[in-house]
C-alpha cells in the first residue's frame, strides 16, 4: 500500500472519530439524560459503527488495521479537546438561523389552518345550540330523574365489596 493511500485512510478514520464524537455529543445534548436519549444513543452506536465501516470500505475495501482504531480515538480526543466549542457554536447558529424560523412558520401555518377550520366548526356548534334550545328543559328533567333514580339504586345496593369490613 502506498504511503499517501495510508495517510488518506488514516485521515478518513480520524474524520469518522470526529463525526462520531460530534454525533454522540449532539444526541447526549438533545436527550438530556432521559431514557429516550439513552435509547437513541444505544441505537446510534451501531449506526455510527456501520458508518465508520462504510468509510473504511470506500477507502480501503474494508481492510481493518489496528491504527484505524487508534485514528478513531485520536478523532474523538481531537473533537473533545479542540472542536467541541466550534461544533456547539455552529449547532446553536443553525438552530437560531434555520430551525427556529422553520418551526415558527410551521406553527403559524398550523394556527392559520386551525383558525380557518375552526370558523365552520364554531358556526355549526352555534347553530346546533340554537336548535337545541327548545330541548333544554326536558333534558334537564330527564337528567334530574336519572340522577334521583341512580341515587335510589345505589342506596338499595349492598356496600361495596371492595371495601374492608370491620370484624
UniProtKB/TrEMBL annotation:
The keyword Phosphoprotein appears for this protein: no
Keywords: Membrane, Transmembrane, Transmembrane helix
Alphabetized InterPro entries for the sequence: YabQ
Pfam family, one: Spore_YabQ
Signal sequence annotation: none
TM ranges: 6-27, 39-58, 89-106, 112-135
Domain of life, source organism: Bacteria
Protein name: Spore cortex protein YabQ (Spore_YabQ)
Lineage, broadest ranks: Bacteria, Bacillati, Bacillota, Bacilli, Bacillales
Amino acid at each position: 500500500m502506498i504511503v499517501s493511500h495510508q495517510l488518506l485512510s488514516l485521515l478518513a478514520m480520524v474524520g469518522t472519530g470526529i463525526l462520531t464524537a460530534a454525533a454522540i455529543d449532539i444526541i447526549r445534548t438533545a436527550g438530556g439524560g432521559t431514557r429516550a436519549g439513552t435509547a437513541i444513543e444505544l441505537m446510534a452506536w451501531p449506526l455510527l459503527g456501520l458508518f465508520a465501516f462504510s468509510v473504511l470500505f470506500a477507502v480501503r475495501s474494508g481492510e481493518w488495521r489496528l491504527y484505524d482504531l487508534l485514528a478513531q480515538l485520536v478523532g474523538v480526543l481531537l473533537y473533545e479537546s479542540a472542536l467541541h466549542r466550534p461544533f456547539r457554536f455552529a449547532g446553536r447558529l443553525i438552530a437560531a438561523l434555520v430551525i427556529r424560523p422553520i418551526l415558527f412558520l410551521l406553527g403559524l401555518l398550523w394556527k392559520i389552518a386551525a383558525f380557518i377550520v375552526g370558523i365552520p366548526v364554531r358556526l355549526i356548534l352555534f347553530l346546533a345550540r340554537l336548535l337545541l334550545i327548545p330541548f333544554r328543559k326536558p333534558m334537564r328533567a330527564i337528567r334530574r330523574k336519572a340522577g334521583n333514580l341512580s341515587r335510589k339504586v345505589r342506596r338499595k345496593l349492598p356496600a361495596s365489596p371492595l371495601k374492608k369490613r370491620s370484624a
